[in-house]
Amino acid sequence: MSIEYYPFQINEHGHLAIGGVDTVELAETYGTPLNVYDVDLIRKRCRTFVNTFKQLGVNANVSYASKAFSSIAILQIIKEEGLGLDVVSDGELFTALQADFPAENIQFHGNNKSIDELTMALDYGVGTIVVDNFYEITLLEKLAREKNKQVNVFIRLTPGIESETHRYILTGNEDSKFGFNLQNGQADKALKRLHNHPYLHLRGLHSHIGSQIFSADSYRLAVKLLFEFIQKWHNINGFTPAVLNVGGGFGIRYTETDQPLAYEKHVKAIVEQVKLESEKVKIPLPDIWIEPGRAIVGEAGITLYRVGSMKHIEGVRHYVSVDGGMADNIRPALYDAKYDAIIANKASERKTETISIAGKACESGDMLVWDVRVPKIEHDDIVALFATGAYGYAMASNYNKLRRPAVVFVEKGKAQLVVKRETFEDLVKNDLPYKI
Known about the structure:
Layout: E1 9-10, E2 16-18, E3 21-22, H1 23-30, E4 34-38, H2 39-56, E5 60-65, H3 72-80, E6 84-87, H4 90-98, E7 106-108, H5 115-124, E8 128-131, H6 134-147, E9 151-158, E10 180-181, H7 186-194, E11 200-207, H8 217-237, E12 243-245, H9 263-281, E13 287-290, H10 294-297, E14 301-313, E15 317-322, H11 331-335, E16 341-343, E17 353-358, E18 367-374, E19 382-386, E20 406-411, E21 414-419, H12 424-428
Parallel strand pairs: 4-20, 5-6, 5-13, 6-7, 7-8, 8-9, 9-10, 9-11, 11-12, 12-13, 15-17
Antiparallel strand pairs: 1-2, 2-3, 4-14, 14-15, 14-19, 16-19, 17-18, 20-21
């Protein structure tokens, strides 16, 4: 791999730098494993989406999908950039409230929202609830009636599109746990139930076709299909959506072989298709909402590890073990996800050998990267994995009683700790002794 494919630099010491800060110094200061985010790059990604909609002259909302990475610090950045926010649990909502994120700019997603979660959303004045099923409608009706509150809702629709992604992260195809199916009549029944509801104000429709999408064609097709039903509903009962939310899923570069489409092109394609279909149906152009998560933080994050033991099997493989792995990044084991890596303290040196980077969890499947070319590898070298900013820390666990890593933000040559490394005491703070 080549560093030129990634938005980072090699400094005068031949070390990988992120946000103007030497990664070797970061590893020494904060320890490893360590998640590091380039805040300037996060801001640029936010502004790319927002400014493209502004340039196209349409009413739009860009909401950060916080499941990609949620912490008080990142939500403060998102708020500063003027984005909305998606949450999928009471924990994500609580984190947002701790970051003083405006509740009216929050959407609450999820296929199995509890009564407590819906109550929390209503009590704090969450802006929109994306209803996912009939059971949820029943719960929300009851709570809204009891509290005498009107609630803005979107209907989550399953358009039945097979997007070009890994099957475990397909959410828009017809066989999905999410949303009301368009093809089998569920969506028709949901719309009929919510249209002109006294408490649940149906503002719009929502769909999400998957993740790591490199082509705009899937979004165009989803919009076209949604408008077939919008036209039917408009003709039958006069329904006109104020908002059309086409979700997220915009692809990023994990390896140098990935060729993601520029985000401006995704946005332009979506806007063009929504305009075209609105004109066909002869309804006002709805506000267009999107929900990027990975696209905002994915490439802005790297993970630093320290090399420990090594095992060279002649003619087979050279295993290099690091001090993290599947506990801080489950994606390679879960999705067979691919990453590029570099030796951060030898970033400018000639690559002379091929290694495979193994995690330290007690699992044969704990492998971070297979067969990457690097300079001569040595104990205590610092390995940097690229594009770990989404679904790394967010999906981290304490498997093998490993402590979740620290998180550092860097911007304009300065570093700040924003999530502390877990302590041994943290690992057992909820444990209780057995006394019978």
